[in-house]
Write a structure and sequence with these properties.
This protein is of the alpha/beta class and 356 residues long. Helices cover 39% and strands 18% of the residues. The chain binds D-mannonic acid (CS2) and manganese (II) ion. The site of D-mannonic acid (CS2) has 15 residues, from strand 4.
Length: 356
Amino acid sequence: MKMILRWFGRDDDHVSLEYIVQIPGVSGIAGALFDVPVGEEWPLDKIRALADDVKKSGLKFEVVESVNVHEDIKLGLPTRDQYIDNYIQTIRNLASVGVKVICYNFMPVFDWLRSDLAMQLEDGSYAMAYHEDKIIDTNPVEIIERFREGSQGFSLPGWEPERLAELKQVLSQYAAVDEDKLFDNLKYFLERLKPVCDETGVKMAIHPDDPPWSVFGLPRIITNRDNLARVLSLVDSPHNGLTLCTGSLGANLDNDLPAMIREFGKRGRIHFVHVRNLKIYAPGDFHETSHLSSDGSLDMFEVMKALYEIGFDGYLRPDHGRMIWGEKGRPGYGLYDRALGAMYLTGIWEALSKMV
Ligand code: CS2
Ligand code: MN
């Protein structure tokens, strides 16, 4: 298991590489270029500059989160091919600096969705929360406004402005796309990526939908065991793999996380793991918590144990943390709580590795 941390770059992260390298056990970062509009090729010189910076700090840059997928690809429009060509060239450019895994998602229009970006918990810390009734009562444009206001001035991953500018039009285009169509469009995309992945060894790791159910009437397919199995069968190759995100899939308590890890991990198809804990009150009603099992509804020990037992040697990172100790930063991505999470998960791993 290789413990890494997500990092948003020198210009848009209050956490520095110099801090990240001080977290015991953290060997690298999951990074990205955040200033390239979705759909365009990532320029090699910018990728090189990022990779050099990370490496100079004593960290590895082997995971990219995320190369976002242009909406036309998800919609299956005739224009998709030019965007897929750019994606292929981006993969080639990333591989040339040693990137091994690319995390992406296939969620229509919206990436992750919360109703509250900073809900105060009993201990005074702040966490993100999801209350379905608040979401249902809000129209998507208001949600975007709320995210902008609550983002502490940072860009929020997956909520890039250019992607959302033509919201109404994009939402109406999805009227013609149901779940089966979305699967077809994902298959088309993955088939076209296969040659460059085979050539470079880069592995694609699809991130589950967060939350793992339909929002605003949009289709969502990366939601449960059967659908994950279906994704893997679209193109049966190690380049078509998963980012197993416990906080995304775990929002639905019917999802048996350790069982999924065993099933898909044994097949060598989990390339990246996000570990996040949630306190779930009812379906569609939860808030994020510290990573500690007893703070939430998900059993982090069982998650790590399943990974240990399948001999997981891929990348893993703590996912969203709370805001604690007065830290101000991008919601979910403070330093302190994620560092605590990393240490806790590393501690479980050490215990597992020393138990007979
Ligand atoms: C992340 C996602 O912050 C988060 O919730 O897990 O934004 C994730 O990076 C993307 O969905 C992956 O493409
Ligand atoms: Mn995640």
